[in-house]
Amino acid sequence: MGCPPVALVLLLLMGGTARTGAAPSALPGHSIANPPDINLLAKMWQLTGTAMPSHSSLILTPGVADRVGTIFSRSALKTNDFEAQFTISAKPGISSFRGDGFAFWYSEENASDLLSAASTKHSHNQDELIAGTWYNHYVKLDLGEVGYKTHYKGLGVFFVKDEQGQSLLRVHYGDGEKTAGQQTALDIRNGEDHSVKIRVTPDSVTVTVESRGETRATVSSAMTLKSGGFIGFSCFGGTKESYNPKERSAFVEIKGLQVLNHAAGPGEDEMPSIAPAAPQGEKEDVLGAHSSFKEHRDESEAIKDLTNMIFKLVIESKPQREQMKASITALSKRVATVEETFRNLKAEIDKKTGHNLGAEFDAIKKELADMHATAHRDTDRRGKKLADLHSDIEHVHKTASSGGDISGDLDSLSKSNEQVLDQLTNQHQRMFGVSIFAIAFIIIAGLSLYNKFRCWEKKHVL
Ligand SMILES: *[C@@H]1O[C@H](CO)[C@@H](O)[C@H](O)[C@H]1NC(C)=O
Question: For residues 69 and 102, what is the distance between their CA atoms, to the nearest angstrom?
């Protein structure tokens, strides 16, 4: 009956030793997979500036000078006996900048809280970015140490350059006023993957940097760290008096972070349940969906959509507008050519006929009018002559009848004369009608022809 309690005690003892022994437990709430799970990243971490996940890594800075990038855990690490391992790669920049570098932090203060207001007001402020004044505010806010606090409280593992431009690995503890620790010369900006292991115990920190399976540097520093700190990275692209935007500082990316708890208790708060990551290939704006500015963002999103649409319309209608403009230009050119051709044709016709067509028509018109007038005059004259003749014959007839003898002859003569006169009048009237008709016809034909030419002239055909 005494056996079971002994076994239980043994088991408990074994369990206890295993817990405090060599097998540390993973802290998934403080680790970042490679490539990063963006849902987890959005929930557990706070990213500002140039820090952003890509499909293959977590980019701290794409190599832009004068910009900061930070990523800090939103939740505290509940242990001061842990190990953080990460793979980092830094491609050298095209030119050197002052103050560039990056760091791993274990901050006693809530860094996300410190950075959220500063980033919104300054490093994410377009006007200040354009004016180049944002960094002054950061410095004023004490955020002048590669994107985080100069007077920090906690651990800082820096990959920076000293005043002489010598690259260093510096492991310092900061108490909020001054910092102290160890450092060694090390430059990892060669584009190769470096594996960094930071072993934090309650009274010391040891940083080991390896590349290609070889240890490149080890720095140990004694310091007393409390549990409840916030881990993260920060990065600054560096400054220069003036530079071409094409000049790049180092491109820094982190390819996975793993945090292990060496202490017995839980190293972190329980992870909130996180929706499974969106299937590959499907795009999802996780940062947008989880942001505290979501509503504001929805509104700006609508404005952005509208702007995009207008931009699209302007851009898309540009070819049509250009085409229309080209067509109109071509058309007016063609009209000008046609006008020119007709002008030439008119000149050619004038030259060939030896006349000016307009003047010619005026002359024809005048001639027709003259013809009409002359015909009219002639007819009048002829009518008058006939009337005279008639009255003469009447007179003779009267004298003759008073004389007696020849009256009968004269009567018949007068009668025949009257008949001739009638005939003549009839003929004259017929002729007059015909000539009037002919003249009218000619005038109408001439006028319509003239009118046609006038029309052509108005249309600039001639
Ligand atoms: C730290 O600050 C961030 C941002 O203000 C906040 O979301 C988070 O809850 C804070 N964490 C703790 C442990 O207070």
Answer: 9
> Which residues have CB under 8 Å from 60's CB, separation 6+?
50, 51, 69, 71, 102, 233, 235, 252, 253, 254
What gap in Å lies between CA 74 and CA 92, rounded to an integer? 30
Q: Which residues line ligand 1 (CB under 6 A)?
A: 74-76, 110, 112-113, 116
Atom of ligand 1 nearest to the CA of 110: 1
Q: Which of 48, 78, 113 to mutate to test the pocket of ligand 1 (most atoms within 8 A of CB)?
A: 113
Parallel, antiparallel, or unpaired for β 58-61 and 251-261?
A: antiparallel
Neighbours of 20 (CB within 10 A): 11
Please give the number of the atom of ligand 1 that sits closest to the Cα of 76.
13
Q: What is the pTM of this model?
A: 0.58
pLDDT the model gives residue 232: 96
Task: Summarize pLDDT for 84-103 with one digit per residue, the tens.
Answer: 999 999 998 877 788 889 99
Q: Whose CA is nearest to atom 4 of ligand 1?
A: 113
- Of residues 461, 100, 175, the one with CA closest to residue 452: 461
Residue with tokens 């060599």: 22
Token pair in block for residue 271: 């992870």
Cα–Cα distance measured from residue 227 to residue 108, given in angstroms and rounded to the nearest whole number: 8
Alpha-carbon distance of 27 to 4, in angstroms, equals 35
Whether residue 184 contacts residue 207, with contact meaning beta carbons closer than 8 Å, is answered with: no
